[in-house]
Amino acid sequence: MEIIWNVEPMEACVLVLGMFDGVHRGHQELLMQGAEQAGERKIPLVVWTFEPHPLEVLCPEKAPRRLTTLQERAEYMAGYGVDRLCVTRFDREVAATQPQTFLENMQHMFHPASLICGFNYSFGQGGRGKPEDLSAYGREHGIGVTVVPPVEIAGDTVSSTRIRLLLEEGQLRLASRLLGHAYGFAGRPEDGGQYLRFAWPKEKVLPAAGAYAGYIREKGKRSRPCLIRLEEQREGEADVSVLEDGYDLQGREAGITFMDILRKGGGADQEDIKLAQAWFRAHR
């Protein structure tokens, strides 16, 4: 799967529109419908998104931390059959684009045979363009438009905003259920051995302080159980204890995934390790 910046005009495709932070269960519904349509038409499945998040440009103090980096989004999307992730750099010039011009540019670049968006998708200056405008444009130009309704879990709509709040509150199980996959991050440790300290990626949502059961995995190698600790007094760091003897990452990059919260707030190292070991025994 390709990540394409500076998009050039391409052949006909099924085009899915959105930010896709988290590639959560709602996003997955868009991608699955796109994959079905692309398979029927035997044309590529393409996602068009913007980077950075519009609020980072228009109102930085209100910009949310991310659930996924662009690379993580691409990796999840590949699992749903996306052929290309096309990225337009969002700036104030792009923000000033009129909705009609947005649609004309989209048609010129992607020649979509069909379009898919979520029920709350917006585009153009001030977000004035809405799904009904996409539908009207599609009827005028012979393009099929699918507007996917909200996906509800546990009594409310699945959204990136809701998932961010759940993580910050320490409600990891429900956050994972809404995501449809485990939350995590990637990085290189500051030291080696079984007890590792990672710098927390500043752009990503930081879960509530506490101890978590999780997995650590180097690319191409098996996952190993670990204890992850996030402390309020060290907000920019994550401590990871590998629960297998003889493991040493030696400064190599690894992915860390959160499986369950063991406790919130502060706690003792040895007690946390016992909690994590007990969790993994119960989940074999």
What does this structure look like?
It is a single chain. The chain has helices at 25-41, 54-58, 70-78, 92-95, 99-110, 131-141, 160-168, 172-179, 269-282, and strands at residues 2-5, 13-17, 45-51, 84-89, 112-118, 144-148, 152-153, 156-157, 183-187, 195-199, 210-217, 224-230, 237-242, 254-264. The protein is of the alpha/beta class. The protein contains 9 helices and 14 strands. It starts with a strand and ends with a helix. The radius of gyration is 21 Å and the shape is elongated. A hairpin with a 2-residue loop joins strand 7 and strand 8. The mean pLDDT is 95. A 6-stranded parallel β-sheet has the order 1-4-3-2-5-6, with helices on both faces. Strands 9-14-11-12-13-10 form a 6-stranded antiparallel β-sheet. Strands 7-8 form a two-stranded antiparallel sheet. It folds into 2 domains: 2-153, Rossmann fold (3-Layer(aba) Sandwich); 184-282, Elongation Factor Tu (Ef-tu), domain 3 (Beta Barrel), CATH 2.40.30.30. The longest helix is centred in the N-terminal third of the chain and has 17 residues, at 25-41. Helix 7 runs antiparallel to helix 8 (172-179).
According to CATH, the fold-level topology of the largest domain is Rossmann fold
Strand content is 25-35%
Low-confidence stretches: none
Radius of gyration: 21 Å
Helix residue percentage: 25-40%
Give the spatial strand order of the biggest sheet: 1-4-3-2-5-6
Shape: elongated
H/E element order: EEHEHHEHHEHEEEHHEEEEEEH
**What's the count of strands?**
14
Number of helices: 9
- Major sheet attributes: 6 strands, parallel
State the CATH superfamily name of the largest domain: HUPs
